[in-house]
Amino acid sequence: MYRVAVLISGSGSNLQALIDSPARNTSYSIDYVISDRPGVYGLKRAELNGIKNYVVDRKVYKAALSDEILKLIKDKVDIIVLAGFLSILRGEILVAFTNKIINIHPSLIPSFCGSGMYGIKVHESVIQCGAKVSGCTVHFVDAGTDSGPIILQKTVPVYFEDDALSLQKRVLEQEHIALPKALDLLCKDRLKIIDGRVKIID
Ligand code: GRF
User: Fold this and answer.
1) pTM to 2 decimals?
2) If you average pLDDT over every residue of the chain, what do you get?
């Protein structure tokens, strides 16, 4: 069973999906929850489920954030999951956890992603440009922003009557399916990266 650290910045509904998944305590254990900001509900979710949780405050650690997180989890976990984590990981942690960090993004990458494209802003942009389909992407994390090899994508329809909140709700439902599924595949060693693309091995 792989040991997992989940990094959050907010409500932690994706963390909750990982907690509630049948794959938890079969494919993976959640050993740490780390937030880059204090007082977020995701920390309460960890507490309620007996999971060690820490704040590594981005306002305190600034450029040292990634190294501080690495200090906490090095040799204690095998995989890092970014579940609504808004800071960018840099430096040694990316080397120590090469192809062992996954992220969930609330759009169909390569659309509506990259620097400054997060949270409700993503859905506002989708609505504004009149896209008819949106969705979410789980991908490996590399040194870029939302740029690593794509593991899974889930699509949702975008209706003319949608606003950013109604679309966000529909996409979030799919995120809660995609993220646990992708983590389960990773823990079962069913993800192979070939020339920058992910092949799911049966
Ligand atoms: C989700 O939409 C996720 O795709 C994005 O941030 C949001 C976090 O939601 N990265 P939650 O904290 O998991 O509820």
Assistant:
1) 0.97
2) 97
